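Forgive a beginner's question, but might I ask you for the amino acids of a protein and the tokens describing how it folds?
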Amino acid sequence: MITKQLINILTSFSHLFLSMSYMILNITNLSNKPKTFLHPPNFVFSFVWTTFYIIFGLSNLKILYNHNLSNNLKIKIINQSISESLLHWLWLLINSKLFTNFNYKIISNFILVYIIYFSFIRSYYIKKADFFLHNLYIPYKLWIIYALSLEIFSLFDFFKI
């Protein structure tokens, strides 16, 4: 019983746990990326992403422990969440101090496009499960679209400051 609960917690908060590895290893390079005038201060990103990751975890737990949902729907939602968290982890890796040339910037943009794609699939399944959680997920989708626009602008040096 405790093992299942631990697995549920680790799975539900996979976004948060995977992103923590970058903070612990201190390999993030996001604050050194080129900035545009649309870029918020660096501290905003930490606050926003941590908030989103906590919301994802709590939403996943609510879905996993909802006895009115079919196991099939739960599995689809959690699989989407894990796919998304792995894409987030990969995006952070590509934007780390380990990869700095232009080709990796292109790869970073493709990963963000996939994250957006997966977010719309996840949103579709969440809407079937819980309309409130679906609405709670909308700011995240808007934020990652905004993140992609910042990536594209910085890639081509649009609006560079």
User: Anything to note?
Assistant: The chain has six helices and no strands.
